[in-house]
């Protein structure tokens, strides 16, 4: 049975199977070796994700087999400012951490052998958020998210990962190491361009390899065509 990789998160996860997306990249990389299962919920924060978690995971695992790994990628919506346009998405920092612990606890209870990889919220480019929310770049307007707030939630996510001893991807810091990340990696100050998706894809591949999930260690499912004897093709399938 092929192992499964479950991707759980908000819109950046839901959109990850789009052209150039990081989830699509994983499905392509592990073709014939693992199935990538998408469970992205656009606009959700950890409070809502925790509420619907059992329903969201229906069918995510194969019968009798825990997924090999699950990514937990929330925080971009939790970090929405409590006094701005998307205030209903805001989750206080302490509750965000508690919700992350509870989500991880659910997975450990139901899928004890599954590796859990936490991903921090990404950085925010505020001028693009103003343009996306209001249709203009009037500097007098306030963004509904800030990079400073996202950074605080990223630090909180990493603290939970350290506490639970889980691998974590600090995409907030990593993405800002790239030149012109504000427009090269982000399409609207929050969601990823193909270049931004590539940054996260590479980080996920590295974390998966660190826990033993890699091209080199996963067997291919069913015989490869060049291993099939042309004189007796059916022998390969016995």
TrEMBL record:
The record's InterPro entries line, in alphabetical order, gives: GDSL, Iah1-like, SGNH_hydro_sf
Q: Which Pfam families match?
A: Lipase_GDSL
Q: What GO MF annotations does this protein's record show?
A: hydrolase activity, acting on ester bonds
Provide the alphabetized UniProt keywords: Hydrolase
Q: Which family does it belong to?
A: Belongs to the 'GDSL' lipolytic enzyme family.
Q: Per its UniProt record, what PANTHER family does this chain match?
A: ISOAMYL ACETATE-HYDROLYZING ESTERASE 1, OS09G0121900 PROTEIN
Name this protein carries in UniProt: Uncharacterized protein
């Amino acid at each position: 049975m092929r192992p499964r990789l479950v991707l759980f998160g908000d819109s950046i996860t839901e959109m990850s199977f789009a052209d150039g997306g990081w989830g699509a990249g994983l499905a392509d990389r592990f073709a014939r070796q693992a199935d990538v299962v998408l469970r992205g919920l656009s606009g959700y924060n950890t409070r809502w994700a925790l509420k619907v978690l059992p329903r969201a995971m229906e069918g995510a695992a194969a019968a009798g087999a825990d997924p090999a790994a699950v990514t937990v990628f929330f925080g971009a919506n939790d970090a929405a400012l409590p006094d701005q346009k998307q205030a209903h998405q805001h989750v206080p920092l302490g509750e965000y951490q508690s919700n992350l612990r509870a989500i991880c606890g659910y997975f450990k209870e139901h899928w004890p052998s599954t590796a859990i990889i936490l991903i921090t919220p990404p950085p925010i480019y505020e001028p693009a958020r103003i343009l996306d929310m209001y249709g203009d770049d009037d500097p007098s307007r306030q963004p509904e998210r800030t990079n400073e707030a996202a950074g605080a939630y990223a630090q909180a996510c990493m603290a939970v990962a350290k506490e639970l001893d889980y691998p974590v991807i600090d995409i907030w810091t990593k993405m800002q190491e790239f030149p012109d990340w504000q427009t090269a990696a982000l399409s609207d100050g929050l969601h990823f361009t193909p270049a931004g998706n590539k940054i996260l894809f590479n980080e996920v591949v590295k974390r998966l390899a660190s826990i033993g999930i890699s091209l080199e260690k996963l067997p291919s499912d069913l015989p490869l065509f060049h291993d099939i004897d042309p004189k007796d093709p059916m022998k390969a399938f016995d």
